[in-house]
Amino acid sequence: MNAKSNIDKNTTQPSEAVRKAIQEAKELPILDVGPYLAGVPGALEQLGADVRHIQENLGFFAIINHGIPQELIDESFRQTAQLFEIPMDEKLKHRVGYHHQGYLPPKASILQSKVIQDKIAVNTKKDTNSAWLFMRNRDADDPKVKNNVRHRGLNQWPDSLPDFKKTLHNYQTSMEKLAVKLMPIYARALDLRGDYFDNMFKAPEYYQRCAYYHPEEKMEEGQYALAPHSDGSFLTLLPMTPVPGLQVMTPAKEWLSVRYVKDALIVNTGQVLNRMSNDRFIATPHRVVNPPHKRYALTFFFYPDDDASVAPIPECVAPGEQPKYDSRSFYEFFVPYLDDLYHYNDKEFMKEVEPERAAMQS
Hints:
Largest sheet: 8 strands, mixed
Number of domains: 1
Shape: globular
Helix content: 25-40%
């Protein structure tokens, strides 16, 4: 099959609301995916046109009527808040290590990204947020667990919160199902067959970041709750929260503070789709600034199968253009991505952890 046989030009134009939101750059475009999920004729092509315009310009949008029960999202937030209240000694039993799964204390890492250093100065300050990091849930019999494949180990679940694992697993499963349903939209946005990505997501990987952004009385200059970066995902799903903090870089390289939309999910694409589209779809830098109140996040990073190719799609390489990225599997991309982004070591780790442990024990 040659490359042109996959092309089915989507001639639908982006909606006026999407054009206006991007032009004004005051708030994220909002897309209603309800009609598409219900199978309404024409909805897929319209979303494809809208997502194309968004991903070529801003890279972030919000979706409503997405089908994830708000009760599940609310309970996941409630359980996540409790997750950060457990004793520090228990947290440290589950601290991140070789597999980047587990607890990451505040000010224990520096978030850096060489990929966006042409847009943002490289960060040198420790992020103030704390987080629990989970990958796809596996059991001890999983071949990747048995072979100690990096970032494919057993998740570290806190013993003192027995309901957390069940709640988060339900949340992750729901987000995974939604992400798979969104794949045809991205295919049509790139003028590909609606089922183009199906073979890449037979056993998709994901990375769940449960984060706690606690207000800091005093921040160092150039320090962030979460430093500027671009995601490594195919796409990212994030339930909105009323507490502000998330900022997105606009095409004019200004920071747009994301406005809360009730029951909406933020959607953005990351470096996987950026490289597969040969830079056509941008992986937008974003950051979290010091929030005015306690802020929690349930970020779901969605990835293809480990063995799926993330080389530029032939149809995305314009005539006379060359592929801008090499040919490699998703897993071969993922490991160096995390190593490039997170920088921490045991000595620095413990230096920052001990004061928090003492405060919690006093």
